[in-house]
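To: structure desk
From: M.T.
Subject: fold request, one chain
Message: Could you run this one when you get a chance? Sequence is below, nothing fancy, just the single chain.
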Amino acid sequence: MRAFIMDAPRQARIGEWPTPEPKAGEVRVAVVAAGICAGDIYIYKGVNPYVVYPAIGGHEIAGVVESVGANVEGLHEGDAVVVEPFLGCGACYPCRQGRSNCCTNLQILGAHRPGGYAEFIVAPATHIHKVPEGLSLFQASFAEPVAIGVHGCRRGDVKPGEYVLILGCGPIGLALIEVARAYGAHVVATDTNPERAAFAAKLGATILPAENLLETVREQTNGEGAPVVMEATGNPKAMEMTVDLVASAGRIVILGLVKQGTTVNLPALDFTRKEMTFLGSRASVNYFPEALRLLASGQITYPRVATAFSMWEAPQVFADLTEHPSRVHKGVLTIPEEVHHA
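Reply: Done. Structure tokens follow.
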């Protein structure tokens, strides 16, 4: 099969790769659309610590069932599907608690294993989800980032009418904005990048200036602070600021990623004085169906402004996006269904 192969940092090509064969309990999917995530750019740049080269990235995957292995039920050739890329071991403590997204032996399609930047991908049938009728595969490829937004909002127990502050209007911040709004929250957001902030405003968020953010939030909440603060910047200073921004008895959800070993300083007294709930949120678990439902309902509008690129132009696309990361809001690599070959 053809694939977008990253041989080494900033060295990528379109080449041949062995076509994966589905084992018992697995499904082979012909990829039609695969989103470009910051994590994929990290692989290209050589700063993803989990990747061994040569590598095939891509973990936001939609396509069509091409073949199924033994003992697979409910999935048939031609079904439009998305692939959930986070594979838990099933044996460790978090897996036993139903939280395989925190698996201590986590494997991610598109990082630890070949991903969706290829004509075909194989995944367990348990991680294949049918796409609702009327939802295009291009739009369905957003299920993974939207599921992250759902997971984050569920972790934060976002309720209708609540004032929810989202720090960061990158791809995950935008997913949080749209999911929180779909759940009926009053969403405010901020970003130091004016273009990102302006785009978040188009999705319905009320944008607060990054300068004097704490004073503005207190003014808007009668001095109480935000009931829910969701951090999606990956900036340690923003993480530290969440404690000041959140209301007493409020919830903080951290989704941003920092480099391993990075520390943040938090005011210890506030843990008891404010009795806030401090939560991490990693990827998602069991929320792909909800993400697909939201996409199919039209409540998630982000895919409408994404830019499609041919999978076979990916080396140049990745080179361009690495040099000019703000050139597009979101990119998706696509393969016409009629061109697949084993």
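Reply (cont.): The chain has two domains: 2-142+306-339, 146-280. Let me know if you need anything else for the meeting.
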